[in-house]
Amino acid sequence: ITYRSLNDFNDRFEDDPAQVESYLRYKGAAFAKEYHPDSYRLLSEAADAHDVGRGHSRLADALDPVAANMETLIVGTREDVIIPYAEQVSLHGMLTALGGTSHLATHSSSAGHDAFFTDDGYFGPLLRKFLTNSGLSYDCAKK
């Protein structure tokens, strides 16, 4: 299991299946040492079961209170295969159509879904600016 993009693998391993297999085995073993299998299972089940629109006939009905009551920042990474960029654009469009103040930041990274771990130089300032402009605290994020 990996959230890395195809381009990241192509750049890193240059079509050598043995290197890819070795990398995935290494990362899998490191993950298994760090996390209990039930933790990963529960996280995976929670992600699969998450449904913002649950209990509403339309997703827009679920998003309407969000759009009316809070400013949102949506960050889409073009290479993200877990939460596709098109879904981020769609969410931003729905919130805006409902009259909300939504900001869409577009990022490109070969790290794909893991970009928020690897690209702190992009995400850190972006989030600090959004939180500051929104009047929210970001003390926990300060270094």
Task: Write the SSE topology.
Blueprint: H1 6-13, H2 17-34, H3 37-49, H4 59-69, E1 72-77, H5 85-97, E2 102-107, H6 115-118, H7 120-133
Parallel strand pairs: 1-2
InterPro entries: AB_hydrolase_fold (IPR029058), HAT_MetX-like (IPR008220)
Organism: Sexangularia sp. CB-2014
Protein name: Homoserine O-acetyltransferase
Task: Characterise the protein shown here.
This protein is mainly α and 143 residues long. The chain has helices at residues 6-13, 17-34, 37-49, 59-69, 85-97, 115-118, 120-133; strands at residues 72-77, 102-107. It has two domains: 1-50, no CATH class; 53-143, Rossmann fold. It has a two-stranded parallel ribbon with strand order 1-2. GO terms for molecular function: homoserine O-acetyltransferase activity. This is Homoserine O-acetyltransferase. One of its GO terms (biological process) is homoserine metabolic process.
